[in-house]
Amino acid sequence: MRARIVRLALFVLGLATGATLAVRWVTRRAALITPPACAPLLLSPLRMAYRAPSRLLRFLEPKPDWTVLDLGCGNGAFTLPLARYVRRIHAVDVQPAMVAALRRRLCRAGLDNVVVHVAPATRLPFEAHTFDAVLMISVLPMLHDRSAALSEARRVLKPDGVLIVGEEWIEPEYVGWRTVMRWAESAGFTLRAHTSNPLCYTLKLVQRSEVR
């Protein structure tokens, strides 16, 4: 009986892995964004376990006077936790429905230091050198023009600002951290710190001229 259960579990795991790889094959040929219908998954207990906002905050080390850009914010899985530790957050997403969901969550939480925008990652409505940190969590592989998005992130960062990039294995468009580093280095960033677990990783990047 136990052997049968093990075989069944392995079969289900194999199907899930095959489906994930198939979706990745498709999405790498046509970059996709998370649809609003899937927004609840961004806040699921499973995701909040392996991609815990508290761990992201410890890695980022935000300061109370910071202004932060949450780029590709979705419904605010990381916007709301971070808002309690910085002066102001600008949360940007290209999907109006995601932005509307974030606004509802901000209203319920009573947070008034978050400004929400609908805008593409490649044309940000901010002046140069505005932000102390830019977050891009599970965003880059979804974009058609990653180079332009990274260039925009660098443009709006202060010279000593940090770019946080993270990806998750469960995402259909997942790419490894070395691939992300190649993209980032081409845009003028270099690695300052790296943290990971079996299901996700996070990179802390700085502009190349700021490496000490």
UniProtKB/TrEMBL annotation:
Protein name in UniProt: Methyltransferase type 11 domain-containing protein
Recorded GO MF terms: S-adenosylmethionine-dependent methyltransferase activity
Domain Methyltransferase type: 69-165
PANTHER family in the record: MALONYL-[ACYL-CARRIER PROTEIN] O-METHYLTRANSFERASE (PTHR43464:SF83), METHYLTRANSFERASE (PTHR43464)
UniProt feature coiled coil, ranges: none
SUPFAM superfamilies in the record: S-adenosyl-L-methionine-dependent methyltransferases
Organism ancestry: Bacteria, Bacillati, Chloroflexota, Candidatus Thermofontia, Candidatus Thermofonsia Clade 3
Domain of life: Bacteria
